[in-house]
Amino acid sequence: MSDAQTAEFADVNELSFEQARDELTQVVAGLEQGAPTLERSIALWERGEVLYQRCEEWLLGAKKRLDAARGVAGED
């Protein structure tokens, strides 16, 4: 199994922000280039959605930490 295939099946919850972002970039590039089959396109799209959510979790967590450090934890 290639590194790309291994990354494709990696548990998203184990990915760092940078790993998830980089894989999401690869997924978007794959979709833009056109996957060989409809099934592959759907699989890429679904993986991209999960990766996007993981990145969003990391960013929201970082925002909360910064807000807490600044003393504005309860404000949006």
- Provide the residue-averaged pLDDT: 86
* Biggest beta sheet summary: none
| Secondary-structure element series | HHH
Structural class of the secondary structure composition? mainly alpha
Give the DSSP E fraction (strand runs of 2 or more residues). Answer: under 5%
Instruction: Give the radius of gyration.
Output: 16 Å
- Total number of beta strands: 0
What sort of overall outline do the alpha carbons produce when their principal axes are compared?
elongated
How many alpha or pi helices?
A: 3
Percent in helix: over 70%
Concise account of the structure shown:
74% of the residues lie in helices and 0% in strands. With 76 residues, the protein is an all-alpha fold.
